[in-house]
Amino acid sequence: MRTLLITGPGGSGRTTVAAATALTAARDGTDTLVLSADRTDTLGAVLGVPTGAAPTSVLPHLTAWRPDAAAGFRDDLAAFQDRAAGVLDLVGASRLDAEEVTPLPGAEELALLRALRDAALSERFELLVVDLPPTPQALALLSLPEELRRYLRRLLPPERQAARALRPVLGRLAGVPMPAEWLYETAARWDAELAAVEAVLADRGTAVRLVAEPGPAGADAVRAAGLGLALRALPVESLVAGRVLPEAAADSWLAGPVAQQRKALDEWQESYRLHRAAHLGRDPRGLDDLAALGMPGVNPGAGPVGWPVTDRLAEDGVLVWHLPLPGAIRDELDLVRRGDEIVVTAGQFRRIVPLPSALRRCTVDGAALREDELRIRFRPDPGLWPRER
Predict the structure, then answer these.
(1) Fewer CB near the last or first residue (10 Å), C or N of the chain?
(2) What distance in Å separates the CA atoms of residue 283 and residue 189, rounded to the nearest whole number?
(3) Cα–Cα distances in angstroms (integers) from residue 367 to residues 5, 130, 310, 335, in the given order
(4) Could you read off the pLDDT of 220-270 as tens digits, one per residue?
(5) Looking at residue 382, what DSSP letter applies?
(6) How many CB atoms lie within 10 A of CB 226?
(7) Burial degree of 43 (CB within 10 A; 0-12, 13-18, 19+)
(8) 341-346 and 32-36: which strand pairing?
(9) 3-class secondary structure for 307-339?
(10) What is the share, in percent, of the chain residues with pLDDT greater than 70?
(11) Across 57-84, average pLDDT
């Protein structure tokens, strides 16, 4: 199954583009699910069909789904209280009733990740179109599975489970309570669920469609989004320029905005597969308006963003790791090697990346930013590198 993630700055028309993209695919005969986590039914307003907690059939080959984050949060809390009943009773804590629980901030995003995983595993659809939050929140959301799995592995390393039979004895000897079995089981289940989401995001069939309104603010947002997505190794399949104004006479009040739009469009044309969605003179509502936007089909050749390692041992005695970072600024880059990981900071974005196996036996020998690509040099550690015979 292919997955297309739709994001862009707030107010750029992400939900409209997601619905129009899904409509194009469905009318081409592709079984498509469009997924949104908006608390309000913006997706339903655009499609002209109410959407909600149950998947809704809009047209042949087109289904819309807006998961109920509140219900999912209550179910998760109730299950957690059941598993932790012994600990709660020990400390004298009162259990919360489902009716008194209000979802915490972030519940919608977590519901979207779970729905993304469930949809990918269902094998019912050929294309999944995901209406993500605005770009900064979307990038934080897409990094969540990887970061949470790191936290779980640090807090509850899997190898500790090998001593589960000894935990009661160790607890008595040490005089302190040891982690209960349910805690490890919960961590293992969360790890499996997060791994499934990570697998969807890392799949060769997953790409991003950016949405922005052409102009100075849109151009800045697209540059930042391109850098953040590259750091997550997510390919940009296309860029949709929304609300494009028609050409205007030089003495028209529209001449200034049109000139700003043209400048941004020319810049985007050089870097992206660009689609210009004309301004309809109104907010798109209903299937006819969505069809009028002429949204293109999904480009099957987007492919993943590769981070290759080139062998320059014979020439320079180093291996070079290539990280594409379009729009990165040299003074805003920072690298820290920590064990078998490297911490990459590019402007407002940061990612902790596991080193490829060959580079774990090397020391960092330097780095340079050239042609929108960060090139990190690694020199083999004589104490760890295999000796030549």
Answers:
(1) C
(2) 43
(3) 32, 36, 14, 9
(4) 999 999 999 999 999 999 999 999 999 887 788 888 899 999 999 999 999
(5) T
(6) 23
(7) buried
(8) unpaired
(9) CCEEEEHHHHCEEEEEEECCCCCHHHEEEEEEC
(10) 81
(11) 73
pLDDT, average across residues 32-57: 92
> Residue 248 to residues 21, 103, 108: CA-CA distances in angstroms?
29, 49, 42
> Per the structure block, which two tokens stand in for 148?
């949470």
Whole-number Å distance between alpha carbons of 325 and 306? 11
Residue 363 makes CB contacts below 8 A (sequence gap 6+) with 337, 378, 379, 381
**Closest to 126 in 3D by CA, of 210, 18, 235, 22:** 22
Handedness of CA 106, 107, 112, 118 (dihedral sign): positive
Tell whether the torsion through CA atoms of 204, 368, 340 and 144 is positive or negative: negative
The pLDDT of residue 170 is: 44
Quote the tokens at residue 304: 């993943």
Helices 181-202 and 135-155 sit at what angle, rounded to 10 degrees?
140
Among 374, 352, 348, CA closest to 139: 348
C-alpha–C-alpha distance, residues 345 and 231, integer Å: 9
Q: Over range 186-197, report the average pLDDT.
A: 82
Work out the pLDDT band at 120, boundaries 50, 70, 90: confident
Strands (E), the chain: 2-7, 32-36, 56-59, 62-65, 127-131, 206-212, 236-244, 274-278, 309-312, 318-324, 333-338, 341-346, 349-354, 362-370, 373-380
Q: Encode pLDDT of 37-48 as tens digits.
A: 888 899 999 999
- DSSP letter for 134, please: -
Domains along the chain with CATH numbers: 2-68+104-292 (3.40.50.300), 309-380 (2.60.40.790)
Buried-state track 66-92, b at ≥16 Cβ within 10 A, e below 16: bbbbbebbbebbeeebebbeeeeeeee
